[in-house]
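To: structure desk
From: M.T.
Subject: fold request, one chain
Message: Could you run this one when you get a chance? Sequence is below, nothing fancy, just the single chain.
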Amino acid sequence: MRVLHIFLEQSLETARRGLVDLCLAGAKSGAFAPVVACLESSPLVTLLEEASVTVLPLSGTGAWRPGVWGRLNKARRIHDFSIVHTHDSLAARLGAKCRQAWPGLRWIHTCWTPPAPDRVKDLEKLRPADMLVALSQDGLRRLEAAGFAADVLRSIPMGIDPGTCPPREKNNPERLTIAALGPLVADSGQAVLLEALALFKAAHPGLAWELRLAGEGPLFEQILRQAGAAGIGEHMAFLGPQQPCAVLPYCDMLIAPDLRGENGCEAVKWAWAAGLPVICSDLPVHAEMVSDGENGRIVPREDAAALGEALAALRGDSDLQRKLAQSGRVSLEDYTLKSMVESNARVYKDLADAAGTGDHL
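Reply: Done. Structure tokens follow.
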């Protein structure tokens, strides 16, 4: 089955990585044959061509541009797509036009972040889609609240390949090493984390510890100043942008203090793959994955005292650390790349079958 994927945004790094993983694994397994349309300046072009995935470089994002639409029309004549799968709001415009112009085509759109209820134009743009996919049950509920029928909605979490992450390898058992991954923006909750760590240091003044903060963003200078003012600057290691597997195997635990969005949930999966216990905020996307005291610890968002207490308790309980890490590894079975590919392939098949009979799902 040929599936046309369209990805036009330049800034959605997590979504871009998810698309690459989905296409490469789908092609390798034979679950579907991907063709990816993206901007000619996108890093996707090189990434996918090196992996022998067919790429359609586009000169722009507008469905009205003759060069863009002509390229897609020519590609459809060659590849005979039965499904078009869009992955961002710009691509959704093209997906809607494909759905309207190409008889028998079915359109699926992945909402990496569902539009807010007041974004009426963004929501209406998605109404013609045959299927909308959310990454979480919380995203699914938001789409239902926006008026989309349950029978056109699916939840397919972003999956990872645990086998690509080395197991935990602790170099210094005398030093507690904490990992935090994510962009340096307000939604990631680093300010709360630093406040919690200042409380932790005050309660354990002689303890050797380090926070390895992997990510980049506009709040770097602010975070640096906050760490200095809180007296924990000497405990900070700013790693810049890093792949999770380059950081987590050399740490003792992950803290995901996110306040909004879905940044932290991918870090949780990679921490489970590396064999680390996890402390995370009570975001809905975290609460779907983590059961407090079973496969991780959950603390209220923006509660630095609770986060500091959870850190101290976990640090002092090696049995709990092992339990959370082992249970996390079991929980990871629901969030693998294999599961993500199989779930998408089932949706493609269902949509293609419905198109063949003229039915709707």
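Reply (cont.): The two ends are 18 Å apart (CA to CA). Let me know if you need anything else for the meeting.
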